[in-house]
Amino acid sequence: MPLSSRWLPYPAASLAALGLLFLALPMACRYWLGWSSWPGYVSDLGLGGLLLLLSYRRPWLAAPLALAWALLLLGNAELVNAVGRMPEPSDLKYLSDPQFVSQSTQGGGIRYPWLAGALALAVLACLLLGRSGGPRPPRYAYALPLALLLGHAVQQYRAPSEDDQWHLFSLPHKALAEGISRARVALEDWYAGEDSGLPPDIAGLSRLDLSGTPLLPGGGKARNLLIVTLEGIPGAYIGKSRQLLGTPYKEDLMPRLSQWAERGMLTPDYVLHSHQTIRGLYAMLCGDYGKLDSGTPKGVELLASQTRNLQCLPHQLRAMGFRTHFLQGAGLRFMAKDQIMPHMGFEQAHGRDWFRNKPYLEFPWGMDDKAYFEGALRYVQQLRRERQPWMLTLLTVGTHQPYSAPPAYLQRYPTAKQAAIGYLDDAVSDFLAALEKQGVLEDTLVVVTSDESHGLENVRLASAWGFNLMLAPKQDRLPAVKTGVYGHVDLTASLLDYFALPVPDNIAGRSLLRDYATPREIISYTNGLLRQHDGKVFTECNFQQVCRRYESSGFIADHAKYLGRVSGRQARLVGQRAALLDQSISGGQLGQRYQFANRERIDLKPESRDDWADNLIGAQYLELPKGTRTRVSLKIDALSLDRRGANLRLLTKEFDRDTSLAIPALPPLKRGESIQLSFDFANPQTRKAFSFHLLGEGHGAIRISDFSVVTEPLPPELVANQAVGTTPEAAAH
Fold it and tell me: What is the pTM of this model?
């Protein structure tokens, strides 16, 4: 039968609903969000057309596809707006998690309610109008969307674009392309055989370099050190950095901090090596690259080392007579900072519970920025009453998603994110002004920087663009602008160099307090892109393991001369260097032994409402390698419970979503008693971003005296036969 006569009986309403959901809405969304590019529209048409053909006249398939498609489209738009990056394939697991969505949209709400509403109506129309039975599209109808996807793949492989990934791919298409890329690389490896060469040289990335000419011969004049770390702030928010690097970004969201940047030594070409706070803190305080992938953060791995932690800046300064302190606006237990920060050498580490001043607004993660800096100012006043020199590291939380600010700021700015940034600008600037008024700047080196960058759309390299501002006594001895490429990996060496203290040989980096005649190597992994710069050539590798090469004297630049692309083994050398740097603590060993209990008193809440905010243990975002078994042991003691005791729950999550592991239930904890539990589970595949969540409800306090997590390789003969699950061996006392 001719195609036309078979096609005409198809219900036009059902076809229109599917076309609206899979084709019209994605392209309209791309246009209105400012993501227009012809590869992006080809991606929408190719994958959307394929899903339309698969869904038509198949209601049993159309329903889950429609729901998943709508959720991914909305989640992609929200995440790009919130943190300036497209979800990676592993992130897809939690985009449908109601808890994640509710927590992430708390306060500011969904950024694009019109998109959510349009998608909901389109999905409802597809479900109501779809019907089973009748003929389906002929097989050759699939040729057009497949040809579009093939053409897209060829174009991106032969001439990859500099545009952000969300300009070029729909989210499911990106995941599909990554899977195909892995298969292509595996085929290349099989065809070429094993590598016979030596491992790539990483000396230029991992060595300490103090060969430059000192800016302050004999060291600086400050007695104390204050590091102010601003959550998620990119270098583009500093006016002088924008001017010097020639970025087209013009929004002046932090004008007051930009004025302070005119008074100190600013390093505009300053590289952030990764996302996630704990990774940024580790790099800046320990003179080492954080993980250049999504594996277990090195800050957590540091807990298993009794030697590498001694090289971190707080330990080094403490050994030289400094009192070392850490103060953040959020709770300390998340990501085990209650243990990591003392292990790095902080004599005192405090979080949300330290503050006695009343916050100006309720914020789910901790203190709002104004109240936080008011508390931090009192902390500085306490330190100044001591005779010893001191180091204080501050970490804000107010510019973390969900963004929140007082009503006056929300009325002044078009988005909650911009309002939160403006609120931080006023708070940190008032704090610096108060320090100056009290004379703190006369004897204290103040460093203002950020832990990571939440990125900016349409700003090249914004996800890796940080800033470093130094306010020092006798500021005129330092240049107003520190030229050259530097990053968080350089901060430990720089600060030890400022105080004319010995710098351990096994940390990496250069000193910002020296001028160098030769360029340097540096590396970063943000927004799913691995970027390496050797001083002359900038190489950027995407998720398909295709790398673009540019001629560029700096790392952060608005534009650079394109030199062409590389793939295959030459491109994978970049990844191999990153993998070797990732082993700086573990040495490549598979065995992992972590103890997350700190034996401190923990006051319980009558009700546990949030798996994250109410978590009692800091074992988050671990990587459990393939072919291993993880053994968990814990002991919980009742300290001062009432007669009703306490109810405890232990949950496990992977990429922030509940897992299916059969973790044994914890029995009720009674007054004056203890609970002991041990269990193990296999890891037939690598588990990434794996987290433990211990929740407790009751009146009184408990102590976690043991929470050990041990992961060891399985014998080869057992790996293939190992089943997913747990073999609990629990006992209550």
Answer: 0.71
